[in-house]
Structures are given as structure tokens and as C-alpha cells.
Design goal:
Order of helices and strands: HEEHEEEEEHHEEEEEEEHEHEEEHE
Number of strands: 19
Strand order of the largest sheet: 6-7-14-10-11
Bound molecules: uridine-diphosphate-2(N-acetylglucosaminyl) butyric acid
Strand content: 25-35%
Shape: globular
Oligomer: single chain
Helix content: 25-40%
Length: 302
């Protein structure tokens, strides 16, 4: 969707919104898939309520984009604009054991920065691509830890109240790859309370996790991480592997040879092919195991 009205563009500029016209989402997602739309880059959290009122009055639908690393976006001209936060500098400020982090901060760099200041706990997340806001919304986790454990406070825009609000950690429920945030809540900033740990010790943990990840996941390829959530007590990757589905392809959409729950874009995969491959694998797992795999990857259909 394109914003062509000059008056509306003027209002956006007044709100400090940077309009990127005709951006390709394939360049902004780790899968390298996604069509074209206008991107509105937000520089001031405080402008969000006015911005959303403006879009609503102009009947322009929108979606919030984080780091694009857990996302499968449809092809072609997209029927909504995309909102994205521009991280401030600095995007992480430490105060004792508290880390004040902007939602647009890069997750990996944040983990490393905290580690260098002797704050640990997040070692498992080191190789996870994306933003802190994205990790928070879905309670990203790996190697026995999850980000929700450390959340002290979250600043978010709530579409339901149309206000920027602050929630304390205990007001939010964090479950396996799921949180109590509403689908249209927009993460703005978080305060994490992290345990003190010497940098060298954190570094050891980081190296172990990096090694495990390198040996089991297709890190150099375009993917959105795990496609399916693990069903209780089982591993989606192992089930897909046991069915001999690694390497199964549809166009350039392919089940990774390295990890059955990673689907990669081996060239110029379309969203349609990737979705069809996901559907096919889900169906084969359902027939063989009687288990209905649930998506972990977020799908934006046009
Ligand atoms: N396995 C296979 N074949 C495969 C993949 C896995 O046999 O193709 C086996 C492994 O050998 C292991 C078991 O399945 O015995 C579990 O595999 P792994 O340790 O790779 O973990 P996972 O359950 O597949 C989960 C998360 C990952 C996270 C890792 C490490 C989900 C859906 N996946 O994967 O998170 O990195 O544990 O903690 O929860 C993600 O969220 O996108 C993601 C990749």
C-alpha cells in the first residue's frame, strides 16, 4: 500500500516519521521473502498514538515489524503499510543489574553488551536473530532459558486503550513461545533484571551455545528459525527428520538438510511455495504421528 496524499505525508513528517516508499520486505526479513509496501520508520515513541489515529482516519491498515526474523510475508503489493521503530542511540542503558533496552535494539548485540558489563542470563539467546522487542513478544528462548524470566517492566503501545502503558513483569504471562500481550500491542522498551556474572564465565556459556547452534542449525542460510512449535514432550525437527523430509522442496522453498524444523529459502522462494511446503509437512506429520503442528513462524498474508 502506498501513501500518496501530500497532506498525509506532511503530517507524518511532523510526527518525525520517516517514510520509505515501495520498500521490499524481502530485504527486511531473514527468510528473504516478502512483497512491497511503504514503511513508516518511527523515531519517537510518543508519536505513536497520533500516528495510529492518523492512519485510522486515512483508512490505511498497518502491521508492526520487529527484526523480521520470525516472519513469513506474502508476495506482491501488500495491502498494509509497515511500522518499524528506529532504535535510539544508545539503545541499551545499564543501571546496576537493570538493563533499560529499546525494543528496536538488536538482540545479539544487546546480549553481548550486557555480558561485557558482567550481566548474564541470556547466553542461550546469543545466536537468535531479531530485535529485543520481537524476542519479548514471543518469549524467545533456547538452551533452557527464556527472555521472560528476566523481565521487570515493559513499555508498550496498547491498541486496545490507544495509549502507551507500562506493565510490571508479574502482570505479563510468559509461556513457551507465547505471551499474554495482545496481537496488536507494540513493544517499545523493556527493563530486564539480569544476574551478575563475570564476563569470562558468560563468554564460556555463549561459546557453548554458539557451538551447539552451529552444529545443529543452518545458520548461513535464509530461514525464519524454527517453523513449528515443539508439541508437548516432542521435537518437531526430529519428527520431520524421522519421516525423511529433510531436503523436501517446492520451488526454492526447502526443508533444511541440517535441521528438520528449519525451512530455508534456497534462492528466490515465493511466500506461496513456502506456505505450501509448510502445509505439506504439517499434513505428513499429522498423518504419521496424529500431531497437529502449530506454527511458530508468524505469517502475514496479504
Ligand atoms: N533432531 C533430529 N533431527 C533434526 C532436528 C533435531 O533428530 O533434524 C533431534 C536432536 O538431535 C535433538 C532433538 O531433536 O535430540 C531436539 O533438537 P534441538 O536440540 O535442535 O532442539 P529443537 O527442539 O529442535 C528448540 C527450539 C530452538 C532452539 C533449540 C535449542 C523450538 C521450536 N525450537 O529446537 O528454537 O534454538 O531448541 O534450545 O522450540 C526457534 O525458536 O526458532 C528455534 C530455532
Amino acid at each position: 500500500m502506498r501513501i500518496s496524499d501530500p497532506q498525509l505525508r506532511g503530517h507524518l513528517a511532523e510526527l518525525g516519521v520517516d517514510l520509505r516508499q515501495g520498500a521490499k520486505l524481502s530485504a527486511l526479513t531473514s527468510l528473504g521473502i516478502g512483497g512491497t509496501t511503504d514503511i513508516l520508520r518511527i523515531t519517537k515513541h510518543e508519536s505513536i498514538p497520533d500516528l495510529l489515529r492518523l492512519l485510522e482516519a486515512s483508512r490505511i491498515p498497518h502491521r508492526f515489524l520487529g527484526g523480521g526474523s520470525n516472519l513469513l510475508v506474502d508476495d506482491g503489493e501488500l495491502p498494509w503499510v509497515v511500522l518499524q521503530l528506529v532504535p535510539p542511540a544508545p539503545d541499551v542503558v545499564l543501571e546496576g543489574n537493570l538493563a533499560h533496552i529499546d525494543a528496536a535494539a538488536d538482540l545479539g548485540r544487546t546480549v553481548t553488551y550486557c555480558a561485557k558489563h558482567d550481566l548474564g542470563g541470556m547466553e542461550g539467546l546469543i545466536g537468535v536473530p531479531g530485535t529485543v522487542g520481537g524476542a519479548l513478544r514471543m518469549n524467545a528462548g533456547a538452551y533452557g532459558m527464556q527472555i521472560g524470566t528476566y523481565v521487570r517492566e515493559v513499555k508498550l503501545y496498547r491498541a486496545a486503550t490507544r495509549k502507551i502503558e507500562t506493565l510490571r513483569g508479574h502482570q505479563i504471562s510468559f509461556e513457551y513461545r507465547h505471551t499474554s500481550f495482545a496481537a496488536d500491542d507494540m513493544m517499545l522498551a523493556v527493563i530486564l533484571e539480569l544476574p551478575s556474572k563475570p564476563y569470562n564465565e558468560i563468554l564460556k556459556g555463549i561459546r557453548i551455545c554458539n557451538e551447539k547452534r552451529r552444529s545443529s542449525q543452518p545458520l548461513g542460510q535464509k530461514s525464519a528459525g524454527c517453523v513449528f512449535k515443539n508439541p508437548p514432550g516432542a521435537s518437531a525437527g526430529r519428527m520431520i527428520d524421522e519421516l525423511g523430509l529433510k531436503g523436501l522442496s517446492l520451488g526454492d522453498a526447502r526443508v533444511s538438510e541440517r535441521h528438520g524444523n528449519f525451512f530455508v529459502n534456497a534462492g528466490h522462494a515465493s511466500a506461496r511455495d513456502m506456505q505450501a511446503l509448510i502445509g505439506d509437512v504439517r499434513e505428513r506429520v499429522r498423518k504419521a504421528y496424529g500431531v497437529a503442528l502449530e506454527n511458530e513462524v508468524v505469517v502475514w498474508n496479504a
